[in-house]
Amino acid sequence: MKKEEEKIIKIIENIMEEKIDNNNDKLIMDSLEFVQLISNLEKSFNIKIHPREKNLKTFNSVNRIIEFLKYKTVKVKK
Asked: d(Cα 14, Cα 16) in Å, to the nearest integer?
């Protein structure tokens, strides 16, 4: 998942306009950044994130986003 992790970090850095790493405990973003993140993840990973899945707890760290995407991509492959 190293390549995907780098892709996620690049997406977040573009949205938040700051350098981050996957050791960040918390990502702090406003509502517009959150919407941009969801949109970019859907496009970049060819997934659909259901409205019930769109919560800040799931997307508040790089590691949580990676775990979520692992879950979503496994579901898509089935």
From this structure: 6
